[in-house]
C-alpha cells in the first residue's frame, strides 16, 4: 500500500471521525490505488492518546496478494497459515490481516472486510434489506455471509461471534460514498424503520479542501456506517503527490507526543462507490521491541527520524546536509538523545541499535536520492526505501560526529571495509579530510582508533547488519555524494593513475594532524599505530609474524594488557568486564590486517616514524620514566618498537636497499635502540597476576587460542583446584574432550590429591573427577584407549586409585554393581553400553577392573566370551609392566589372570570357561589380541610342566590352544618360549608313563588320558620348531645335540617321537633284539644293548615301536621278518606277540590303543583261526561237525571286517601275507569238507583284498 493523502486537524471531528476525542488529530489514507476506485484504509492518530482496547467487532481484512506474503516473510513478520495458502498476521495495533498467497487481483487486492455480529440473520436483513447489499454467499452452518454492492468491489463478510459484540475502545467505522441527493433519503429510511442514527446529516470541513456531507448510522450490533456525498468526496479524495512528505513533516510533531505505546484510530477503505472502513489503529508507533533487520521501519527508526528532524530545525535556515563540525554541539544533541532513547527502549545485544543507526545514516549519505518516478515502485523493490525516506539528507559531519558520540570506531571500520574498494578509500579520505580541519583531541583519538581497528579487522566476521549494508551499497553502485559541506577529498601523492591504498591514506592523515598531537598518550598511540602498520609490511621482517607466540608468552601479554586497562581509569576499556577486556586484548595481539603497506609506503612510513621519533622521542622518554604507571598506549609503543627493531636488523642484513633506504633504516634503527634503551625497563614491572583469570576467560569465551590455553589450564599446577579453576573446568568441560587434555587433568589431579587430604580438598577433587570422567566418556573408543595407556604408563596397574583416595572410596561397590549389570546384559546390543561402563571403571582402576572381569569370566556360566569381547575393546590393557621379578608376568592382563583366576579353578566347567576366555583374548576376531601366545605360554605352561604340578593337565590344554594360533610375524612366537627346554619337559613327562603303574598312589601324576595330549603337543612342536627358530645353523645343531643328549637318559621310545625334529642328524636308536625280527636299514636305525631287553624281547620292542605312531606301526609291519610258510615260526611269533601285547597294553593311552588295534584284531583273529584248526586236527575224524565250521567261518568274517578297516599304506601287503599264511595253514587240515569250505572262503577274501 502507499500513502494517498495526509491531513492534520487541530480539533476533534464533528462526526467523531477520530472517535470521542476533542484534541489534535490526523488521518492518513493508504491503499493500493486512488480512493475513487479502491478500498483504502484511513489511519487516524489522536495526539496524546496512549492506547486502545481491542474488541471482537473487527475480525480482519483479507488481501489476495502473493507479494504481500513475500514481503511479510522477507521482513520476518510473524505469519500463521490458517488454511492452505492463507496466512494470518497482525498489524502493529493488533488488527488481523489474512493474506492469500495468490496472484494479486488486478482491480484491488483488498477482497473482503470481516465484521463480527451477534445475530447473523438480523444483520443480513439490515445490510441487505435496508442498505441494499447483494448477498453473494450465506452459510448457516458456519454462521457467515458475504455481501457487496458490485462484483468487482471489496466485499463485506458478516460472521457470528457467538455472543454480544464488544467494540472495546478501538472501534472504527465503514464508509460508503453515494449521490449527495440520496443522503436525506437514507436518513429518512432509518428513522422510518426505527434504526439508530449516530450523526444526522452534517457538513464536514477539511482545511484547504472540499466540504463533504455525511450521515452516520449504526447496525444492530453498533457497527458505525458512514454515507458520504460522492461529488464532494471525489474532490476531497484525490491522491496528493505530497502526501508522503506531509506525513514526514508531521512526524516531528508526532515525536513530541510519542509515548511507549503510541495510539491512534485507523481510517478505512474506499470502494468504487466510495465505501470506507475505519478500524482503530495504534498510530505511528510500532509494536514494542525493535523490528528485525537494519532497514525495518519500527519504533527505533521513528525515534531516530524525530532526532534528525529536531536537529534540522536547530540548524535552520541551513539544511542538515550542510552541517559543520562546529554545529554539532548544538544540532547533534537531539540525534544523540534519540539514540540514547532507542537504547533504553530497544535493548539489544552488543548495541545492535547503534550499528543499525550508523548504517542507516551512512547509507543515506552514499545512496543518491531516488527519482520521483520511483515513488510508485521503490517501496516494493528497495528494502532501504522506506527507512531512507524517513531520514533527511545528511553529510559526513553527521556520520563522523555520530560515530564519535557513540564511541564505536570498530563499528565504523566494519562498515567501512564492507564497502567496494574505491568507495572505501574515498570514505577514509573523507575522514582524513574531516579530522585535518579544526583538529581536536577527540578527532585525533577517533582517527587513531579507526587506524587501530583497521589493522585489527578480520574478514568473515560480518554480522547481518554489515552484510546488509554491504549488499545495499554494492547493489546501488554508490557514488559518494559531494553535497555534504565538505570539499571533494584531495588526492594524495602517489601514482596518479591508481588511487592510493588505505595504508597511504592513513600515513597521509598522520602527516596532516601530527602538529596537532600534543598529549603524550596520543603520541604514543600514533607511534604505536605507525610502527605496527610498518611491521605488517611483507617487505619487513623475517616472515614469521604469522607464527603464533608460545602460548605462555601469549597469555602473559594478554594479562599485561588486561592489567593495564584495569588500572587505567582513562582507558575506554577500564569499565569493561574481564571477558570483554580479554576479547579486546586478543584482537590486539592477533593482527591479520587486510592492509599491508607496499615498498613505497613502507619506506615513506619508516621516514615518517624516524621524523616523529626525533621530534617526540626525548619528551616521551621523560614521560615514560617519570610515570608511576604504564598506560596501554605506551606499552604498545614499547612492545611494537621492540618487534620493529628486530625486523629492521633483518631488513638491513637481507634487503636489496638503495642508498637513501639504507640511510633511513640505519637512522631509524639507532633511534629505536636509543628510545628502548632508556625505557624498556618499565616493561619488566608489568603485572602478570591475572594470567590464570585471563586464561579462564579465553576458555569460557572460546577465543582464538582457547585450544592451546586449555592445555596450559589442564597442566598448570599453580592454578589448579582454586574454586574458579574448578568452576571453569566444570562449565567448559566440552573443550577438554581430548585424550591429551584428559591425561593432563588427571596428572594435575594426582599431584594435588597426594598433598591435599582435607575435606574441602576432597570435595573439589570429587567435582574435578566427575568433570574429567564426563570428558573422558565423550571420547571415541580409540581416544579412551590413549587415555588408559597414559594412565598405565604414569601410575601402573592400580591407576588413579593408588594416589587418589576419593577414587578408592566406593570404587569396589561401583565395580561390583556395574559388572553385575554387564553380565546380565549379554548381547550384541548390550556390548556398546558395557564397553562404555568398562571404560569408566578402567580409567579409575585398571587392575581392579581387569581382575574382576577375569574372575567373572570364569565363574559366570556363558559370560566368558562377552567379557572377553569387552576386554579386547581396550588394547591399551596389553600394557607391559616394568619390574625385576623374572617369575612375574610383565603383561598387566596376564598378571591379573594369574592373581585372580589361576590356581582357583574348582570345577571342570570353570577350567573350560577359563580356556575359552583365554583363547578369545588371544584370538578376538577382528579386534587386537589382548595377550599373546608367548605370554600365555610363559605364564601358564612353562612353570607347570612337571608331573607333580596340580595344574599340569590344564597347562597342557592351554599349550594345545596356543599352538593352534598362527604366528603373526615371520618369527614364530614359539622362538621366545625356549622351545628346546619345552620339548625336554614334554619328553620327561612321557618318560614318566613308562613307570606309570609303579608310581605311589598318593603321588600326583598326569592320567593316561593326558598322555595323548602330550604326544599331540610334542608332535606339533616337532612340526613348528625348525632351524629358523634359532639365530644360526650352528646353534641349531648345538640345540639338537643338547636335546639328544638329555633324551638319551630317558626311555628309548621317547627319542623315536623326536625323529621329525632330529631329521638326518640322529638315527633311530632301538634295542638290538628288534633287529632279530625286523629288517631295519642301518643308515636309519642303530642298535643299542639295554639290560631290560634280553633274548626274546624283539617282539616287545617291535610292539612298542608300533605304539609310537601310525607311520612307524606300518613300517614295523612291513619290516617284520617272520616266515609265514613255517608253522613253527608262526607259532612262536604268535605266542611272543601275545606276551608282548600283555606287557605293552597297561601303558598304552587311548590313542596308542587305536594305533595297535589293526594289528591286534587281525592277529587275534588269525590266532583263534589257527587254534580252531588245531582243535579240528585233534578231534576224531568226522566229529568236528557243523559247529566247528560255523565258528571258523565267523572268525574269518571278523578278520575280513578288521582287515578292510585298516587303510594304512602297507595294509594290502599285510593282508596278502596273512592270506597266504591262512591258506597254507588250511591246506594241512585233514577234514576234506572243512578244508574245502574254508579255502573257498579264503579265496573270496583274497579276491576282495585285490580290489
TrEMBL record:
The record's section on InterPro entries has: GEMIN4, GLOD4_C, GLOD4_dom, Glyas_Bleomycin-R_OHBP_Dase, VOC_core
The source's domain of life comes to Eukaryota
Q: What biological-process GO terms show up in the record?
A: rRNA processing; spliceosomal snRNP assembly
Query: SUPFAM superfamilies, from UniProt?
Result: Glyoxalase/Bleomycin resistance protein/Dihydroxybiphenyl dioxygenase
VOC domain residues are 109-230
GO annotation, cellular component aspect: SMN complex
Q: What is this protein called?
A: VOC domain-containing protein
